Amino acid sequence: MTPKPNMSFKVNNLLTKKDLFKKICKRLRQLDLISSETQVVNELMYRESLSDTRISEECAMPHCQSEAITDSKIIVVDCWDNPIGWENKNEKVTKIVFLLLAVNDNEARLKEIRDFVRALATGSFEFNDLASFEMLD
Predict the structure, then answer these.
(1) In degrees to the nearest 10, what's the CA dihedral of 120, 125, 131, 137?
(2) 59: buried, middle or exposed (CB in 10 Å: 19+, 13-18, 0-12)?
(3) Is the pTM of the predicted complex or chain greater than 0.70?
(4) Cβ neighbours of residue 2 under 8 Å, at least 6 residues apart?
(5) Please, what sign has the CA dihedral across residues 53, 62, 96, 93?
(6) pLDDT digits (tens, 9 = 90+) for 68-96
């Protein structure tokens, strides 16, 4: 069975990558799924500084492991209507962002995330399996 995303968001205005991370982390903090918005945003941005996670103009897969993450999540962000400014004004993600957040020591959840990425790569992931999208304000 292919793991499914745990949360889905839809972007309703133009954002930068960092703004997107901040909005998602704010929501995750409200749900007690992370203990620190700032720490997770900083760790995501640090990971981005090591290597761009934009797979193509259409898709990106930012990810990090952190002690501030209390529950591992696979988050899908629909940005079809409002592309995300990724590195600069000329580089955008125009369709979808898969945000992978992992607790440092939960091997079972890390395997689920790896299985999800594998399903994406092999084409066995069904987009119609997604939960309804929550609007990001």
Answers:
(1) 20
(2) middle
(3) yes
(4) 115, 116, 119, 124, 125, 126, 129
(5) negative
(6) 998 888 888 999 999 999 886 678 888 88
